């Protein structure tokens, strides 16, 4: 089968489009014929060297987020069969395996593809939606009627967070650059702050939850927007415990989501109900993976970049 393989860590030039052996599913796995794989920042960070820190072994097939049809099922898998259209996370927990014509996935990490959307849209869901869901609901316990600030509301995770928070019944404030204002408002944000025109911490106050997808100075200034006893959760770095004590708030990080077929099934219901729209920025063929990584690293895309692999 064709796949994108790296034999060493480095820039996009280490991405090789080559033939490799097709994997075989274990008892609790399925083999997916991949139609589409999504590109995530984790992919090029792994390529740049984070893969070694994560304990991944070279040579490595990148890509942790896929949509396709089941080719083969393991002996213990009872809820899927050959030909089923599915989407979800690869068997490595979302760290690798998807940039290929076939990929392995745990049966507990995939869900039926929503009928109302395409494979391209389906591949753009799992990482961003599960990250947003688990950060806001499992970690920060966002509930109906609460006020949440989502920093980076136009990005892949941010746009999912805005819609999921609105579906929960929260009051949502999103930050992004001014060119994305209408986009973020159309997602359902109640208020919008253009961080390029004014410091968001000067106009946003008394938040119950802040979900940070940016890090750096944005994370540091977010402390000032929260009321006492509230929650700050970041998807990109660890918030300061010292500042948390100073502001009397709770903090957490969610750098790694947990694959969950149950949560994907709940997300499916929101999609079918028209409460969650998927935004794909760019579709590229698998051999153009270098261009896909360059686009992702630019951090200027709105929504997801996906790689077309099969049909």
Explain what this protein looks like in three dimensions.
With 311 residues, the protein is of the alpha/beta class. It is built from 10 helices and 16 strands. The strands form 3 sheets. Strands 3, 5, 6, 7, 8, 15 and 16 form a 7-stranded mixed beta sheet that branches. Strand 15 (280-285), helix 10 (289-298) and strand 16 form a beta-alpha-beta unit. Helix 3 (126-139) packs across helix 4 (156-168). The protein starts with a strand and ends with a strand.
Outline of the structure:
By secondary structure, the chain is of the alpha/beta class.
How are helices and strands ordered from N to C? EEEHEEEEEHHEHEHEHEHEHEHEHE
Total DSSP helices? 10
- Beta-strand percentage range: 25-35%
Distance between the termini: 14 Å
- State the low-pLDDT regions, or none: none
Give the proportion of residues in helices: 25-40%
Query: Number of DSSP strands?
Result: 16
Radius of gyration: 19 Å
Looking at the structure, what is the overall shape? globular
Largest sheet: 7 strands, mixed
Secondary structure class reads alpha/beta
How much is the average pLDDT? 95
Which properties best describe this structure?
311 residues; alpha/beta; 10 helices
How are the SSEs ordered, and which strands pair?
Blueprint: E1 2-6, E2 16-19, E3 29-39, H1 41-53, E4 60-61, E5 65-73, E6 85-89, E7 102-106, E8 110-112, H2 119-123, H3 126-139, E9 147-151, H4 156-168, E10 171-176, H5 181-187, E11 191-194, H6 200-203, E12 207-212, H7 216-222, E13 226-234, H8 241-247, E14 250-253, H9 261-272, E15 280-285, H10 289-298, E16 304-308
Parallel strand pairs: 9-10, 9-12, 10-11, 12-13, 13-14, 15-16
Antiparallel strand pairs: 1-2, 1-4, 3-5, 3-7, 3-16, 5-6, 6-8
């Amino acid at each position: 089968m064709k796949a994108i393989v790296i034999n060493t860590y480095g820039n996009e030039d280490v991405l090789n489009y080559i033939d490799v052996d097709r994997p075989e599913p274990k008892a609790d796995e399925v083999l997916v014929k991949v139609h589409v794989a999504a590109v995530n920042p984790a992919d090029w960070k792994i390529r740049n060297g984070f893969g070694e820190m994560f304990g991944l072994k070279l040579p490595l097939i990148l890509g942790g987020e896929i949509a396709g049809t089941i080719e083969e099922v393991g002996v213990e898998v009872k809820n899927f069969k050959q030909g089923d259209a599915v989407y979800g996370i690869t068997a490595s927990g979302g760290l690798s395996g998807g940039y290929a014509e076939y990929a392995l996935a745990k049966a507990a990490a995939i869900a039926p593809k929503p009928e109302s959307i395409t494979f391209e849209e389906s591949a753009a869901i799992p990482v961003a939606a599960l990250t947003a869901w688990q950060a806001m609901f499992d970690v920060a316990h966002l509930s109906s009627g609460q006020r949440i600030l989502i920093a980076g509301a136009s990005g892949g995770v941010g746009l999912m967070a805005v819609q999921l928070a609105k579906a929960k019944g929260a009051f949502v404030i999103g930050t992004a650059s001014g060119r994305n204002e209408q986009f973020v408002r159309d997602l359902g944000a109640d208020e919008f702050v253009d961080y390029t025109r004014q410091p968001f911490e000067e106009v946003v106050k008394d938040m119950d939850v802040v979900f940070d997808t940016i890090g750096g100075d944005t994370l540091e200034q977010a402390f000032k927007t929260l009321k006492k006893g509230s929650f700050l959760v970041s998807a990109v770095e660890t918030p300061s415990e010292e500042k948390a004590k100073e502001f009397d708030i709770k903090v957490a990080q969610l750098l790694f989501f947990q694959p969950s077929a149950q949560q994907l099934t709940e997300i499916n219901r929101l999609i079918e109900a028209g409460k969650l729209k998927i935004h794909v920025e760019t579709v590229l063929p698998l051999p153009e993976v270098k261009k896909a990584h360059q686009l992702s690293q630019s951090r200027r895309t709105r929504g997801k970049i996906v790689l077309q692999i099969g049909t």
